[in-house]
């Protein structure tokens, strides 16, 4: 009988321990741990973007926790691989939601982001994408972004080429099957005349599986442009640079954030990227103290220089912190929908000084900050001198 009583007592103690993990030395209670969910491609051809976002976000989480957290809450990042696939991104969102995520940082790329925002809208979960740049990625009231939008990039690129660089003749090579590429191309073309640009050649291709760009390059070279605009991702851009070199074409190239990563893609042919320019919100050699602190930490942890995707994600976590503080949220057990309404109201009031610039937001989810010109020089991304 004593043994039976002892077993019952032990079972009751175990049950109490499950109910109160903190009292039994386990993890903290739900009111003290604020979970940030997220997803992006950690494997596959777009992994350079997702890995950078995860790494940048984790650095911010660690820094904030080391400084005391947010209103007494400790941050926790739950970041899942979506392989740059819309269906897998939805699965990743469901995974982090089931794990207790209160906000969603993601997704990293536009097409998956468009799929996930349909789900966060239904749940009324606050969503902040670091780099999903398509218009539909933030089409609902619960969704905001850190990066520039596709139309914004197209307009800014045309203005920068025509006004800052003072060039006149431009050719374009774009992927007409891709949301990102089309969004930038259409706005660039619309803004070109206002920026004093003449589009001398427009060449398209279809899909990431396209490997042969010789037809497009021959047409572009014959048009003799001052510069070739590439509103595409770095994988295709790397092939274009290689094939232009093989053909003996002396062409200059300009792109947007999708070209960030092209140096690594070229590997032994990295010299082919010499002189390639792009617009970015972040340059690692910026002397700003915040930037250099972030770059130093990133290099120490991951043995590489952070790209703009890492920087946008790093800023994204600090934006979430600022919105939580503005909203006065002190209990991580707050309901997702209630929290979303609080954060939406805060986003249009806060100003965040980040490593990607001074940021403010409008109610439609768009971030206002200033783009910078960047050029690849001696294998490094360097700010274009004024």
Name its key features.
alpha/beta, 2 domains, Rossmann fold, seven-stranded mixed beta sheet, 12 helices, single chain, five-stranded parallel beta sheet, 15 strands, 386 residues
Word description of this protein:
With 386 residues, this protein is of the alpha/beta class. It folds into two domains: 33-148 and 288-370, Rossmann fold (3-Layer(aba) Sandwich), CATH 3.40.50; 151-280, Response regulator (Rossmann fold, 3-Layer(aba) Sandwich), CATH 3.40.50. Helix content is 44%, strand content 19%. The protein has twelve helices and 15 strands. Helix 2 links the parallel strand 1 and strand 2. Helix 2 (47-66) packs across helix 11 (308-327) and helix 11 (308-327) packs across helix 12 (336-347). The longest helix has 20 residues, at 47-66. It is globular and about 65 Å long. The protein starts with a helix and ends with a strand.
């Amino acid at each position: 009988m004593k043994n039976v009583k002892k077993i019952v007592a032990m079972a009751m103690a175990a049950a109490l321990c499950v109910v109160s993990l903190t009292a039994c030395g386990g993890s903290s209670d739900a009111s003290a741990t604020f979970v940030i969910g997220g997803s992006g491609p950690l494997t596959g051809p777009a992994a350079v973007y997702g890995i950078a976002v995860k790494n940048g976000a984790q650095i911010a989480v660690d820094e904030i926790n080391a400084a005391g957290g947010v209103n007494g809450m400790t941050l926790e990042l739950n970041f899942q691989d979506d392989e740059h696939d819309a269906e897998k991104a939805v699965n990743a969102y469901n995974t982090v939601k089931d794990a207790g995520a209160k906000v969603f940082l993601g997704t990293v790329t536009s097409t998956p982001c468009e799929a996930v925002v349909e789900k966060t809208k239904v749940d009324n979960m606050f969503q902040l994408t670091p780099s999903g740049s398509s218009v539909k990625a933030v089409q609902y009231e619960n969704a905001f972004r850190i990066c520039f939008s596709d139309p914004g990039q197209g307009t800014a690129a045309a203005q920068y080429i025509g006004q800052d660089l003072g060039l006149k003749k431009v050719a374009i090579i774009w992927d007409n099957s891709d949301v990102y590429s089309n969004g930038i191309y259409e706005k660039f073309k619309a803004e070109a005349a206002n920026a004093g640009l003449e589009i001398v050649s427009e060449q398209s291709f279809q899909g990431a599986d396209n490997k042969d760009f010789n037809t497009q390059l021959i047409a572009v070279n014959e048009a003799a442009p001052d510069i070739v605009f590439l509103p595409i991702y770095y994988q295709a851009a790397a092939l274009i640079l290689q094939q232009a070199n093989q053909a003996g074409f002396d062409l200059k190239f300009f792109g947007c954030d999708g070209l960030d990563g092209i140096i690594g893609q070229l590997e032994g042919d990295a010299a082919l990227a010499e002189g390639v320019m792009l617009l970015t919100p972040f340059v690692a050699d910026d002397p700003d103290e915040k930037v250099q602190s972030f770059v130093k930490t990133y290099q120490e942890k991951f043995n590489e220089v952070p790209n703009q995707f890492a920087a946008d994600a790093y800023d994204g976590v600090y934006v979430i912190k600022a919105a939580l503080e503005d909203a006065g949220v002190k209990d991580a057990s707050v309901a997702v929908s209630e929290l979303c309404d609080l954060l939406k109201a805060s986003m249009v009031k806060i100003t965040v000084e980040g490593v990607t610039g001074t940021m403010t937001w409008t109610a439609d989810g768009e971030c206002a900050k200033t783009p910078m010109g960047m050029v690849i020089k001696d294998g490094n991304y360097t700010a274009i001198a004024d």
